[in-house]
Amino acid sequence: MLAAIKNEIRDKTDYLGGDIVETIYFGGGTPSLLTAKEVEELLGALYKTFVIASNPEITLEANPDDLSNEKIWELKQAGINRLSIGTQSFNDADLAFLNRAHNAGQAIACIENAKQNGIDLLSIDLIYGIPGQGEDTWLANLDMVAKYNIPHFSAYALTVEPKTQLDYLIGKKKITAVSEEQSIRNFNTMMDWVIQNDYLQYEISNFCSGNKFSKHNSAYWQGKKYAGFGPSAHSFNGETRQWNIANNARYIKGVGEQKPYFELETLTHEQKYNEYIMTSLRTCWGIDAEYIKVHFGPEYLSVLVESAKQFLEANMVFEKDGHYILTNAGKLLADGIIAEMFVV
Predict the structure, then answer these.
(1) pLDDT category, 174, cuts 50, 70, 90?
(2) pTM for this model (two decimals)
(3) How far is Cα 117 from Cα 223, in angstroms, rounded to an integer?
(4) 281 and 337 in contact (C-beta within 8 Å)?
């Protein structure tokens, strides 16, 4: 697998057109299974192939039980300067419900070890809307973010995917179903907490203190080019989007034999517009009307203004200095609003 990924990196030498790479992200699957030496080898391949910024953000996703003190130190020596930790909760009952392998003590130890090893750029994931999770428990999770001065966190409402163990247990009435009302209460509690603790919700699910935005996440929402490597990885060069096959064996064989291992689509003008609407409206900066006019033309600006009217009137969107931005009420219905504003 590693050999295939290195070959794919070399295959994409010209993919970014010489643009400077500001962020590298080891994510998807379980990248913490990699040894520090393997991480270093992959970084070496990237440095040989692309123009890398002098101080790039280099993130690795991991779960607390994967990150011993020694592992964190080794990853730091290999070049990792940011960790995205799948904490999910600091409450053992929540973690047991979510069937996580770690406990709250391990999550806290992981954060402390990262800081002791000089990795201060941390992000954690939190889940809300967990059945039985009271407001006090959810607020206590958020307070841990401030207590440990974690500069970035992502928060997601628990969703039930079909044919999962959670779906099965809810169907058999062995556990309480996920409540939309509870998720809304938790979301509103989080909105109040964010203001009180000086965190910025710069995207619906992402929050930071100071200017500690995730450069990686922000690049997606700003429509920047990116190259992805490995099974299921996606890439975007401004004009086309491509995604690798998910099957490991077929991916390795395809790369090794120089046979097609990805699908590709060329984006139409309408698709580019819709993607801009989708990504920008999720952020605190919103849709820039002037950007629409310059990059898509006056007719698309008219479409934007017309499609935004109903949401402005319903207090789901507000307009400020030529930017259309979601209200807190609108954030709860973001996907539907975005779909209504698409050109079809």
Answers:
(1) low
(2) 0.92
(3) 34
(4) yes
